[in-house]
Write a structure and sequence with these properties.
This protein is an alpha/beta fold and about 220 residues long. The protein is built from 8 helices and 8 strands; from the N terminus they run βαβαααβαβαβββαβα. Strands 2-3-1-4-8 form a 5-stranded parallel beta sheet, sandwiched between helices. Strands 6-5-7 form a 3-stranded antiparallel beta sheet. It starts with a strand and ends in a 7-residue tail after the last helix. It binds adenosine monophosphate. The site of adenosine monophosphate (AMP) has 17 residues, from helix 2 and helix 3.
Length: about 220
């Protein structure tokens, strides 16, 4: 199953995407994780992306299309992939459609996480992430240890108030039109109410895709 997750920053795409990928037995591709790892390692990709990421702006479409192509080529032999935050502009959606056509694959569903912006600001302001495996936490102080890998939790630079405001504006301007684009293409768009406990939201995700998963 190939599933695109859309939704504003802080809507829970990463957490739910991880769980969905485990449930489906497929990999998850998150361009944000790929880019942060490149920044950490100081690769040319990371150096090119860092300033835009710190401001909360999007990195250029051709950079994302390159990542998408590499990763999907690699995952193509598998059963599918969960694409978390990989598609954020209409040209990226068009690019993904092209790549999938070339690979002889089709998109099964687009899940749109709906949540109001006040909740997003409070979630993002309280968020820390593991500097090693990128697992997000809410309400844990920077410097604490990650439950999963023992890495150190840090505050993301783009979770500072100004960058948060910019990311929400960027979502409205550049990513919200992608929802309409998918709606006009194939009708595979399903909206998920992203407010609620992790388990409740996951039950909605699984229900929308008509899959059954063991409890986490
Ligand atoms: P995320 O971890 O998904 O919040 O992504 C963090 C940052 O990485 C974003 O604010 C963008 O700067 C960049 N990024 C991730 N995915 C994309 C994408 N599909 N298009 C453009 N920029 C992206």
């Amino acid at each position: 199953m190939i599933v695109v997750l859309l939704g504003p920053p802080g809507a829970g795409k990463g957490t739910q995407g991880e769980r969905l990928a485990t449930c489906l037995g497929v990999p998850k591709l998150a361009t944000g994780d790929v880019l942060r790892d490149a920044v950490k390692r100081g690769t040319p990709l990371g150096l090119a992306a860092k300033a835009a990421m710190d401001r909360g702006d999007l990195v250029p479409d051709d950079v994302i299309l390159g990542i998408m192509k590499d990763a999907l080529g690699m995952h193509n032999k598998g059963r599918g992939v969960v694409l978390d935050g990989v598609v954020r502009t209409v040209p990226q959606a068009e690019g993904l459609a092209r790549v999938l056509r070339e690979l002889g694959r089709t998109l099964d569903a687009v899940l749109v996480f709906d949540i109001d912006s006040e909740e997003l600001v409070s979630r993002l302001s309280a968020r820390t992430v593991c500097s090693n495996c990128q697992t997000p936490y809410t309400g844990r102080e920077p410097g604490s240890k990650c439950d999963k890998c023992g890495g150190t939790l840090v505050r993301r630079k783009d979770d500072e108030p100004e960058a948060i405001r910019n990311r929400l504006a960027v979502y409205e301007r550049q990513t919200a039109p992608v929802v309409a684009w998918y709606g006009a293409q194939n009708g595979a768009v399903r909206r998920i109410d992203a407010l609620g406990s992790m388990d409740d939201v996951f039950a909605r995700v699984a229900g929308a895709l008509d899959v059954t998963c063991d409890p986490a």
